Amino acid sequence: MIPKLIEIDATTGTITSAEVPRELRLVGGRALSSAVVCAEVPPTCHPLSAENVLVIAPGLLAGTALSSANRLSAGAKSPLTGGIKESNSGGVVAYKLARLGVKALKIKGKRNVDEPLLGIHITRQGTSILELDHLRSKGTYESARLLQEQFGSKAGLMLIGPAGELRLATACINITDPEGEPCRNLGRGGLGAVMGSKGIKAIIVDDRGVTVSPTPEARGVIRKFSTALKEHPVTGEKFAKYGTVMTLLNVNGLGGLPTRNFSRGSFEKAEAIGADTLHDTLESRGGMVSHGCMPGCVIRCSNKYVDQQGEPIVGSLDYETVCLLGSNIGIDNLDAVAALNRLCNDIGIDTMETGAALGVLAEAGVWDFGDADRARSLIDEIGAGAPLGRLIASGCVACGRAYGVERIPAVKDQGMAAYDPRAIKGMGLTYALSPMGADHTAGNAIVLSVDHLDPNAQLGPVRDLHLKTAVLDSLGLCLFTGRVSLDQTELVEEICSALLGWKVGFADLLKLAQGWLLQEREFNRQAGFTAAQDRLPPFMYAEKLAPNDSVFDVPEGHLGEFYSF
Amino acid sequence: MIPKLIEIDATTGTITSAEVPRELRLVGGRALSSAVVCAEVPPTCHPLSAENVLVIAPGLLAGTALSSANRLSAGAKSPLTGGIKESNSGGVVAYKLARLGVKALKIKGKRNVDEPLLGIHITRQGTSILELDHLRSKGTYESARLLQEQFGSKAGLMLIGPAGELRLATACINITDPEGEPCRNLGRGGLGAVMGSKGIKAIIVDDRGVTVSPTPEARGVIRKFSTALKEHPVTGEKFAKYGTVMTLLNVNGLGGLPTRNFSRGSFEKAEAIGADTLHDTLESRGGMVSHGCMPGCVIRCSNKYVDQQGEPIVGSLDYETVCLLGSNIGIDNLDAVAALNRLCNDIGIDTMETGAALGVLAEAGVWDFGDADRARSLIDEIGAGAPLGRLIASGCVACGRAYGVERIPAVKDQGMAAYDPRAIKGMGLTYALSPMGADHTAGNAIVLSVDHLDPNAQLGPVRDLHLKTAVLDSLGLCLFTGRVSLDQTELVEEICSALLGWKVGFADLLKLAQGWLLQEREFNRQAGFTAAQDRLPPFMYAEKLAPNDSVFDVPEGHLGEFYSF
User: Are B46 and A79 a contacting pair at CB < 8 A?
Assistant: First the structure.
């Protein structure tokens, strides 16, 4: 089966399907979404205009039974940062799209707010557009349920909530997990608003009837990779037991846990939202301690959080959310965080940016840190399209401007992830220099074996990590495979050979990644970004972070030479 | 008297007075404020941080009896654009500061929101800091009244309203006119927020006891300039009869009058808010048809608008406000515009950006174009610090983001002035290329004798005009003298010689102006601006403007070579 590029023009409702050009056959995920954005989106266009293109691209290895290899990339010009964006998620959609031979979806054009909402239905028979206006203003949970009733519970869904319909700059795109819960997110950078601007409420991907038979060689390497993941203490055990929250007490111990709008690096109630608490709570209540967000994943880092009666609240409760909607806003219990997480998912808004925005607003005195009921009502205002909700959903920088706050933890208008870069200094390089703004995923420096407080120890390892991450994001491999895939790179080479017929060395992949990053950076340059935007906010250079009393002091020269490959 | 630079550190409350260094003796107004900002403000600092410096500099000729020569410049890094800002106003303060020998005030440091508000009192005896916390949250009208009770009705005032105290990004600084009304504004770019961040509610300038005797030569040239202004039909008569609103029907006729969020270039009710209506209303009600905003001005373009009972509403009702709070938001009567203008003045917020923001919000469906009562209540929300008010006061770009609007008439995050650049194409060059964002004052191309629709006719004349304008802004000469001062440049040379002892040719002044503009531009470059920000919003290149059905099509190359002096 020769894979297809499906192009949808939302303005006209036309669908075009074309064979993938030869030069893109071995490009997938982030490399592909960014290539399309760079080739087709005018860098200075309005992100909600017809010119922007929402690109949805499964990783290169998606559609196979390889563990942890079904990540989905979405790309566009970001309504939040104004630069290029790739957002990355698990869930079932990449797997199904790839099995249907869909290399990428490109959605162009735009729809007016008052036109009926549409859906895109992709099956073995082809792609069609249908009206979904009955889902208008509905949350993602109810929308998913109704879509599953209509299209079958096996259909994979990408959908937006009210936030995306309202075209809010931090709206996300939700992806269903194997249980059909719309809880995996293309979270950052407002891609839900781009989908909303094109009038698309949902994409339904139904791969029934497709059979793919792996070769014996493929079966062998799939088994080998699973075994390697299972044998590693972290990917084989710790992730499954503690999930991503396992990092919380570690980061807290390093003094880098964002607390009360990044005013401290440790939270006095960290234990209460830490991994042991999460694990024990899940176990005692009968939640799912361990769960795979993607078909075939053996790491199984996700979970299904339940309330005291064992009723589902949200799956999965993950580290970034537990910090940004927890310690960063002074909330010290997981039930409260889970409720906020569920609410954000339902509205279709990025939990991380919401936490960053609420942190800034608490500092401004709009509400009190720790008041979970008030946090909930503030997030409700997003879904209602109320002015304060819209401001929150415009991101922490907009909140800071509206309330005259100076301590705004953001780069390129995007709120930072759950690591304060004054204590985890490599993360500062990632936030500052990634074309994506203050994402952690572009180079999650917390995994590096370096002294995180040493300003001189970061440049080389973090730069390496950016390249390696870009490789994983393009292959569709989950970053959490890194402890195996980045340690035993010959395994990645075997995988490419057996599953893709691609004889490529890992060093060659890294070389390709240099080009991908530089192409993203060139988009940003044309959009108007310079070195001035490749820096942390001024307060992080001056305001000491307790308990280390550290500032961000990675030498300016290190930032300057980051992209000198 | 050797002029002084007075530096105030708001953090510590210290006041330092120093002689003006020799190289700054012949630098004033915009050239001086920008020189200080470029020298002392880190381009990437947070605009509300201690590092930002609010510079207040009378024009070089201020303090004399020369007509129309007492303009005041204020400069800082703008909270709205993130770039350098010079804002320029009439009123009495420049005159009084100059007579007191104050070449410039530099205000550094910052105060927390909960610290008492301060005032700066400048008299012949010296400069002191005093507490003004009893004025907290008070509008500028009541504040001015109370300050005049305390310090005498002759004191000149610069003050902020609630918007500045709230550090809102479009807060202005109000200046009193000769009658003591706080209605002259350093309007654009949020300098009121910078003043607010330094905890300064008001600056009281009392020049009693100062006598300055002009030389016979000076007297001669002052007379000569007045005569020349009086003899010109525009500066001698039209401005006094119709005020700045005289331009409205002209711009409407050219199809460039921003109407309903820049969706049309002509307003069907333009007559109702035009110059004849204004003039007749003022005359029949007993308002002041003509009034000088600065001591000694013979042009007298301003007015005092009154209600049907003859009670004062606002002085002065001017073109930019009548358009942006009139046609741009669908309001077709001057009483309503005047009430909104008064309200904005009282809150201390830029009327122009407020009009641009309300236009975007009407397009988003938040309110209906033309509903003056609702417009009023929306502006009230600014003063109250309510979320929607804060969003409005964050500017039209923030409103567009929060409501997912694509048609946002702004450059560098600042709303456009009252000329649609698709019909007045030279103004497009000004908006795009001025370091100040979409101000008209940097090069008010409407005065040029060119075909405003011809994309190829603009580059040379507009570039010239930017330089000439920078000269006037630095001398402190009102732009409205241009029909005389820029036509009879030898008069300017005579003035410099007689009043400043400065033998300078006008061509030399233009040469200096090149340096001033390039220095401002360099600040922006270091703050992260590139050519991508030196462009109009995308919709203006694509969406045809009725009635001319024109787009902005000045060749890209013309924008690129604008600064090739």
Answer: no
